[in-house]
């Protein structure tokens, strides 16, 4: 097995999705901190590895992969002896892929990045109410995806749960889950919080992002 290096920082949800996956697979890795607010992702060295200048990035024996969804799928395919976390069966895998794309487009880009970018990169301090409404609308979809099942793709944990929990946990300051409107999703989040070493791999970083949001936001308008 080659040497694995994960580049990232704790508040980043997709970095934490990778940490949850690496932990579930029992993989050792080196963690290299990239300070986004200091612009380290745009250094010549980093851009040479990842021209899109995003974290997370995984380096596996010199091969660089970015986008958390590509990373977590790669890790399971390459390093997992069983296929539960990312099933090989076509339909089961399609369901996991759908949840991963939902996380990428709707939860991360549509909810988190749409709020974070104006605050952290353009120094804005007010958040339009419509962006908070969009978070609750995304929760409605997740509630439907879950139905009566324990995990997002059925009775078993998959990488989709790791990806989605990285966003949903980070949104709890901006849009706390309401038990009455989202009973299944609330129970799912509590279930995810019971995972071994959850705090180290996701909970603490999610709280950091929640604190960063609340330090910056003066008003929802
Ligand atoms: N879809 C990507 C999102 C990656 C992303 O946008 N990461 C943010 C941090 S959470 C970032 O690197 N921002 C710095 C930049 O874009 O320059 C993934 O899942 O990895």
TrEMBL record:
Gene Ontology MF annotations: glutathione transferase activity
Subunit structure: Homodimer.
Transmembrane domains' residue ranges: none
BP GO annotations: glutathione metabolic process
Name of the molecule in the record: GstE9
Sequence ranges assigned to domain GST C-terminal in this UniProt record: 89-220
Short name of one Pfam family: GST_C
InterPro entries, alphabetized: Glutathione-S-Trfase_C-like, Glutathione-S-Trfase_C_sf, Glutathione_S-Trfase, Glutathione_S-Trfase_N, GST_C, Thioredoxin-like_sf
Sequence similarity: Belongs to the GST superfamily.
UniProt-listed SUPFAM superfamilies: GST C-terminal domain-like, Thioredoxin-like
Signal sequence extent: none
Limits of the GST N-terminal domain: 2-83
């Amino acid at each position: 097995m080659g040497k694995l290096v994960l580049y990232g920082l704790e508040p980043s949800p997709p970095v934490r999705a990778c940490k949850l996956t690496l932990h579930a697979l029992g993989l050792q890795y080196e963690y290299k901190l990239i300070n986004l607010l200091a612009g380290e992702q745009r250094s010549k060295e980093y851009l040479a590895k990842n021209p899109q200048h995003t974290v997370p990035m995984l380096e596996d024996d010199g091969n660089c992969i970015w986008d958390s969804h590509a990373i977590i799928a790669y890790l399971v395919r390459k390093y997992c002896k069983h296929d539960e976390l990312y099933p090989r069966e076509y339909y089961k895998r399609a369901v996991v892929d759908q949840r991963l794309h939902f996380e990428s487009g709707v939860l991360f880009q549509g909810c988190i990045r749409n709020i974070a970018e104006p605050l952290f990169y353009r120094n804005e301090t007010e958040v339009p109410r419509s962006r908070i409404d969009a978070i609750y609308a995304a929760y409605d979809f997740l509630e439907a995806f879950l139905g009566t099942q324990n995990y997002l793709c059925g009775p078993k944990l998959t990488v989709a749960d790791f990806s989605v929990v990285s966003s949903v946990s980070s949104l709890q300051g901006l849009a706390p889950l309401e038990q009455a409107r989202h009973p299944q999703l609330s129970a799912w989040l509590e279930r995810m919080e019971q995972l071994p070493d959850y705090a180290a791999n996701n909970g603490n970083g999610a709280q950091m992002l929640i604190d960063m949001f609340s330090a910056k936001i003066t008003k929802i308008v």
